[in-house]
Design a protein that fits this description.
InterPro entries: 2Fe-2S_ferredoxin-like_sf, 2Fe-2S_ferredoxin-type, 2Fe2S_fd_BS, Beta-grasp_dom_sf, Cbr1-like_FAD-bd_dom, Creatinase/aminopeptidase-like, FAD-bd_FR_type, FNR_nucleotide-bd. GO terms for molecular function: 2 iron, 2 sulfur cluster binding; oxidoreductase activity. The protein has helices at about 25-30, 175-180, 215-225, 245-255, 270-280, 295-305, 345-365, 375-385, 450-470, 475-490; strands spanning about 5-10, 15-20, 45-50, 55, 75, 80-85, 85-90, 100-115, 115-125, 135-140, 145-150, 160-165, 185-195, 205-210, 230-240, 260-265, 285-290, 315-320, 390-395, 400, 425-430, 430-435, 435, 440-445, 495, 500, 530-535, 540-550. By secondary structure, it is of the alpha+beta class. A 6-stranded antiparallel sheet has the order 11-10-13-8-9-12. A hairpin with a 5-residue loop joins strand 10 (about 135-140) and strand 11. The protein has 10 helices and 28 strands. Helices cover about 25% and strands about 25% of the residues. Helix 5 runs parallel beside helix 6 (about 295-305). The chain is globular, with a radius of gyration of 25 Å. The chain has 3 domains: about 5-90, Ubiquitin-like (UB roll); about 100-330, Rossmann fold; about 345-550, Alpha-Beta Complex (Creatine Amidinohydrolase). Bound molecules: flavin-adenine dinucleotide (FAD) and FE2/S2 (inorganic) cluster. The site of flavin-adenine dinucleotide (FAD) has 24 residues, from strand 11, strand 12, helix 2 and helix 3.
Length: about 550
C-alpha cells in the first residue's frame, strides 16, 4: 500500500502530501513553489532543513554518481529523498508565495526638498523586500515606466518607500504626472531591481559618490554603513547649494558617527573624484558605490581603479532617462515553447543578476591563491556568494585547476589538486540573486605559460565570433557547429558536451530544459547562455567562457 505522509513547511504552515515518490516531485505536483534545478543532488537548490520526521535517500542506479552537494546533519535534498513519516521542513532563503512583480501602492506624502527635487512617500499594498540601493519602476498610464531609487530602508520604516525625484525639463512623469499625485492617489510599482546594492563587507572602508538625486540611490547604502559602524565617506556633487538637499541630516550624522565624513562638491569648484583622490583613501582595500550621471560614473571608476581600487569593488547605478523611448529600451519576445519564463521574469532582474554574477566571479578570482586546493577554493566561493546575497546556486559552482580544465562540468574533480604558480583555472558560477538566475564563467591564468595564454585568447575569440554569428540569425544548433569550426581553425577542440542552456527567473527548470546546441530556432536575447569550452588536442589544457546572449554585451 502506498502510505501517504503529510509534509508541513515552516513557518508558513502550508502542507503537501507524498507517498513513495521523491519529495521534490510531490511538492511540484502540489503546485507549491519549489526551489530546484539539477535534480541530481549537485546544485543544492532543493536543500531543506528537517525540523521533524524521518526520510530515506533515493536508491541510485549502480552506475549513477552519488549526490555530491555537502549537507549539514539536519539538511536534506528534496530531489534525493523520500518521506518515511509525516515531516516538518524549512526551506532557507525561499518564500512559498512568489512575490508579485507588480504591486499597488498609495501616495502617503509628498513635499519639496529643494527647488527641483520632490520627495514622494508611498505605502505598498504588500511589503517589498528592497535591498539597500535598489530601485522600482513606476508604471505610467501610457504603459511606459520610469525608474526611481528607494531612498530609505523600508524595513525600518514599516514598509514605507521614500523617493527623491528631480524635475527633468519636459519630463512626462517628473514635470507632469508627479504634480497631479496627491496623498491617497494609487500607483503601480514593479520590482525591486538593481545590482548597486550593499555588498555585505563590513571590514572594507566605504567611499560613496553621488551627483544630484543620485544621492537617493546612495542614501540607503550610507544608512546601512552607519548602522554597521563601517568607516564611510560621501562625496556629493551638485551645481548649487540647494542641490545638497539632505545636508542637515548628513551634518547631524557626522556628529553622531565619528567614522562618517561627507563633502559637498560644487561643480564650479571641482569634480567628486578629484576631491576624493586628494583625500588619500586606501583604495586597494576600499569598497566604492556611485550613483548619478553616466560621465561621472565612468570618470570615478577610471580614477579610482587607476589609484588601486580592484575593479569588482566599484558598484554603480547610472541615473539615465528610463522611459521606453530611451536608447537602452529592449523589447523581448520569446518562443512560447522553448523560451518560456516564469511570472517574475524581467529584463531589469536578469541584467542585475548578470552584473552581480560578473562581480562575484571577479571577487572569487581575486581570492584564488597559489597553493590553495580545489576544495578550499570551492568553500571560499560558496562563502563569497552567500556574503554577496545569493540565495541559491542553480547549478553547482565549478572551479577547476590545471588538467581538470578539460573535464566535462558534471565530471568530478580532484578536490586536493593545488593551484600552481603557473596554472590555468576555470571558474563557473550559477547563483540566484533576488529570484533571478545568474550564470557567468571565465578562465584565469596564473604565470605566463604561452599555452595557457593562447588558450584564453582562442577561447574569447571563439566566443566573440560565435556571438557575432548569433547576430546574423543562426539557430542554436548552427551556433555550436560554427563554434566547433572556429575552435578547430585556431588549433583547439570544442567540448560539445557543454552546449549552452536557458536562464530565467528561478527556477527555469520548471520549463523545458533544452540545450542551446539542440535548438532549431534562432535563440532570443536574454534567455540563453552561450557556453564555450575549449580543450587542447593533445595537452591537458582547457578553458571555459560563458555569457548570456544579449545584443549589448
Ligand atoms: C536605475 C535608475 C534609477 C533612477 N533613480 C532616480 C531617482 O531616484 N531620482 C531621480 O530623480 N531620477 C532617477 N533616475 C532617473 C529617472 O528615471 C529619469 O530621469 C526619468 O526618465 C525621468 O522621467 P520623466 O518622465 O520625468 O522624464 P522623461 O519624460 O523620461 O524625459 C524627458 C526628457 O529628458 C531626458 N532625460 C530624462 N532623464 C534624464 C537623465 N537622468 N539624464 C539625462 N536626460 C534625461 C529624456 O531623454 C527626455 O528627453 C533613475 C534612473 C535609473 C535608470
Ligand atoms: S540538488 Fe536537488 S535540484 Fe539540485
Amino acid at each position: 500500500m502506498n502510505t501517504r505522509h503529510v509534509i508541513e513547511l515552516s513557518p508558513s504552515g502550508k502542507t503537501f502530501e507524498t507517498g513513495d515518490e521523491l519529495l521534490l516531485d510531490a511538492m511540484l505536483a502540489s503546485g507549491l513553489a519549489v526551489p530546484f534545478s539539477c535534480r541530481r543532488g549537485a546544485c543544492g537548490s532543493c536543500k531543506v532543513v528537517v525540523a521533524a520526521g524521518e526520510y530515506r535517500a533515493k536508491r541510485l542506479a549502480p552506475d549513477a554518481p552519488a549526490p555530491c552537494y555537502p549537507l549539514a546533519a539536519n539538511e536534506m535534498l528534496l530531489c534525493q529523498s523520500h518521506a518515511c513519516t509525516d515531516m516538518r521542513l524549512e526551506i532557507p532563503g525561499w518564500s512559498l508565495d512568489t512575490p508579485a512583480l507588480v504591486v499597488g501602492a498609495q501616495v502617503i506624502g509628498k513635499r519639496a526638498l529643494g527647488p527641483d527635487v520632490i520627495e514622494l512617500m508611498l505605502k505598498p499594498d504588500t511589503p517589498l523586500k528592497v535591498r539597500a540601493g535598489q530601485y522600482l519602476k513606476f508604471h505610467l498610464a501610457d504603459g511606459d515606466t520610469r525608474c526611481f531609487s528607494v531612498a530609505n530602508l523600508p524595513t525600518e520604516e514599516e514598509g514605507r518607500l521614500v523617493f527623491q525625484i528631480r524635475r527633468v525639463r519636459g519630463g512626462y512623469f517628473s514635470e507632469g504626472v508627479l504634480d497631479g499625485l496627491a496623498v491617497g492617489a494609487r500607483m503601480q510599482l514593479e520590482g525591486p531591481f538593481g545590482a548597486c546594492t550593499w555588498q555585505d563587507d563590513d571590514a572594507a572602508p566605504v567611499v560613496l559618490f553621488a551627483t544630484g538625486t543620485g544621492y537617493a540611490g546612495i542614501k540607503p547604502i550610507l544608512l546601512t554603513a552607519l548602522k554597521r559602524n563601517v568607516e564611510v565617506t560621501l562625496y556629493w556633487g551638485g551645481a548649487q547649494s540647494t542641490d545638497f538637499y539632505d545636508g542637515a541630516f548628513l551634518d547631524e550624522s557626522m556628529l553622531e558617527h565619528p567614522r562618517f565624513r561627507w563633502h559637498s562638491v560644487r561643480s564650479s569648484e571641482g569634480r567628486v573624484q578629484e576631491v576624493a583622490l586628494s583625500h588619500g583613501h586606501h583604495w586597494e582595500a576600499t569598497q566604492v558605490y556611485a550613483c548619478g550621471n553616466g560621465p561621472m560614473l565612468s570618470q570615478v571608476r577610471a580614477h579610482c581603479v587607476e589609484a588601486g581600487l580592484p575593479s569588482h569593488r566599484f558598484v554603480a547605478e547610472a541615473f539615465v532617462a528610463s522611459g521606453r523611448s530611451s536608447a537602452q529600451a529592449v523589447s523581448l519576445s520569446f518562443d512560447p515553447i522553448w523560451e518560456k519564463v516564469g511570472p517574475r521574469y524581467s529584463l531589469d532582474g536578469m541584467l542585475a543578476a548578470r552584473e552581480k554574477s560578473i562581480r562575484a566571479l571577479a571577487a572569487i578570482a581575486s581570492r584564488l591563491t597559489v597553493g590553495m586546493t580545489t576544495g578550499e577554493a570551492l568553500e571560499m566561493a560558496a562563502q563569497q556568494l552567500t556574503a554577496m546575497g545569493a540565495s541559491h546556486t542553480w547549478h553547482p559552482t565549478y572551479i577547476r585547476f590545471g588538467p581538470d580544465t578539460i573535464r566535462p562540468s558534471r565530471e568530478g574533480v580532484d578536490r586536493q589538486r593545488k593551484l600552481r604558480a603557473s596554472d590555468i583555472v576555470v571558474v563557473d558560477l550559477g547563483p540566484v540573486w533576488d529570484g533571478y538566475e545568474g550564470d557567468y564563467g571565465d578562465t584565469f591564468i596564473f604565470g605566463e605559460l604561452p599555452l595557457h595564454l593562447a588558450c584564453r585568447t582562442a577561447l574569447h575569440e571563439v566566443f566573440d565570433e560565435t556571438r557575432q554569428a548569433w547576430l546574423r540569425g543562426l539557430t542554436g544548433r548552427e551556433l555550436y557547429d560554427f563554434a566547433e569550426q572556429s575552435a578547430v581553425s585556431k588549433g583547439w577542440r570544442l567540448a560539445r558536451n557543454l552546449a549552452g542552456h536557458r536562464l530565467a527567473d528561478f527556477p527555469h527548470a520548471l520549463f523545458e530544459s533544452k540545450e542551446l546546441a539542440d535548438l532549431e530556432i534562432p535563440p532570443s536575447e536574454m534567455a540563453w547562455v552561450l557556453e564555450i569550452q575549449l580543450c587542447h588536442p593533445t595537452e591537458p589544457v582547457g578553458g571555459f567562457f560563458e555569457d548570456m546572449l544579449m545584443l549589448q554585451a
